[in-house]
Amino acid sequence: MATHHIPDADTGEPAWPQIPELSFSFQPLTQQEALQTTAPLVAPCLKPEAREPDVRNVQQTLDHREQTSINLGERRAAYFGTLHSHTAASDGKGSVEDAYRDAREKAHLDFFAVTDHPEYWLLQDREAYAHQKQVAAASERPDYIPLVGFEYSHPSLGHYVVLNSDGVHQGFDGNLQTFYDWLKRPEQKNALVMFAHPGFHDYRFAYEFKHFRFDPALKAKFVGLEVIHWSEYLRYFRGYFGVIPYIDEAIRQGWWVGAAASQDVHYGNWGTRDPSRIAMLLPHLSREAIDEALRRRHFYATSNRDLQFAVNAKRRDQSWAMMGDHVYGDEIPTDQVEIQVRYYDHDCVERPYRLEAVLDGNVVATYDFPPPVSGGPAISNAGTFTLRLPLDRRRLPPRFPLYMRFYQGDDHETFTESSALFFDLVTKAKDAQD
Questions:
Q1: CATH number of 24-431
Q2: DSSP state of 93
Q3: Which terminus of the chain is less hemmed in, N or C, by CB atoms within 10 Å?
């Protein structure tokens, strides 16, 4: 399979041509093999009446997922939700109470956050945010975890989704450093941040996020970047400089960010606006497990409401690192590293179209599924890919991210992007300070 690259904006040549052509091998799997279980499972495909075009969650129930693992190594299954939404408390429609209820009862999300703009609250920000916390706490169920946050909205420097903060910070200060300093306060020790829809508003393009200006003191707090917004993903393939995706630009600046998806709901259709989700790889559904997954970047962005997806790399000791993990020089085999990609699509609706491996912002391997043939074999709704990456340190950067993009559907309208595996060929694991 031929390799293709994102071309350099000036020369039209590949931005990083040194990597040799790589290829995936593919193996179809059964449901039990993909989910690594011998436990009884639900039917591998939904009944036709449950496969109507819809965006409500249809994934396996909690008890089934707690017995399964799409991930190699640590047992993890995918849980689905959205972490960027609005209500009439800022610039949206519907009440905060409606939002948390509908996300649970109509969309059947596993987790959900309201992230209103505190710039609308003026001198009532404490009371408004306290009310949202109270509503969220009252809506929690064993199968539904409500989170609380806000969207810091600076008119020229960009928007940031902030979760788990003690309070809010309004975007009227005119200074990105003021926001950064606020995040460093002791009372915001639990706050986590995501870059919201980079490049979405053209008028902010020259100043947004100051093009991911890095602050090492906040590396642990900035956990994600939206690579899907309103089910749109193509615009995020070229960053501020037109060569590599926004997420790779952020990573090159020093940020350790995973791939997030956003519905950014404003019209009262929380969780049902479109099928975009952030999927967390969890051992079970709980507030603590979600917090750990966010902090370890164990999540992926998807516009498939029920796709289980995992990316793993085999360490020298035969253990498996998972998406979001750092893999250090003394953990990596000397000649090549084995990458495994696994998927399981429960509803069997969206046919697989293509898988891409993206290394340091450039596509280095692809696998195109054969088109369906009348009377031919059905394309598997579960499978595993193997990619072997040669570790030629003369050609590889000393530090680089590797992530996967998975397309489904006849018009590849369904898109999934994993968080990266972060390879560091220089640092030893025992010396690492993430």
A1: 3.20.20.140
A2: S
A3: C
Q: Which of 28-32, 74-78, 411-415 has the lowest mean pLDDT?
A: 411-415
User: Mean pLDDT for the chain?
Assistant: 90
How far apart CA 286 and CA 284 sit, in angstroms, is: 6
Residue 420 phi/psi, 5-degree rounding, is -85, 155
The mean pLDDT value for 197-208 works out to: 94
User: How is residue 394 annotated by DSSP?
Assistant: T
Residue that has been written with the tokens 């990458």 in this structure: 339
- The C-alpha atoms of residue 149 and residue 351 are separated, in whole angstroms, by 36
Question: What are the structure tokens assigned to 84, written together?
Answer: 């960027």
**Residue 72 CB-half CA count within 13 A:** 21
Helix axes 125-139, 96-105, angle to 10 degrees: 30
Q: Report d(CA 295, CA 281) in Å as an integer.
A: 12
Q: Are 303 and 261 in contact (CB under 8 A)?
A: yes
Q: Name the β-bridge partners of 399.
A: 424
Whether pTM > 0.90 for this model: the answer is yes
Residue 370 is encoded by which pair of tokens?
């054969």
| Neighbour count for residue 180 (Cβ, 10 Å) | 15
Between the CA of residue 385 and those of 48, 158, 354, 369, 389, what are the distances in Å?
29, 37, 11, 12, 13
Residue 295 Cα distances to 110, 154, 288, 312, angstroms? 18, 25, 11, 18
* Domain residue ranges of the chain, discontinuous segments joined by +: 24-431
DSSP assignments along 14-80, one per residue: BS-TTSPP--EEEEE--HHHHTT--S----SS--GGG-SS--S-----HHHHTT--SSSSS--EEEE
Tokens of 319: 């253990």
| Three-state SS at 289 | helix
- Of the candidates 416, 414, 396, the residue with the CA atom closest to the CA atom of residue 406: 416
Give the residue ranges of DSSP H helices in 140-236: 176-183
* Identity at 398, one-letter amino acid code: P
* Token pair in block for residue 161: 């989704």
Judge contact between 198 and 260, C-beta under 8 A: no
Please check whether residue 143 is in contact with residue 179, taking contact to mean a CB–CB distance below 8 angstroms: no
Q: What is the band of 52 on the pLDDT scale with cuts at 50, 70, 90?
A: low
3-state secondary structure of 104: helix
Q: What is the per-residue pLDDT across 294-318, written as a single tens digit (0 to 9) for each?
A: 999 999 999 999 999 999 999 999 9
In this prediction, residue 292 has a pLDDT band, given cuts at 50, 70 and 90, of: very high
CB 304 within 8 A of CB 275: yes
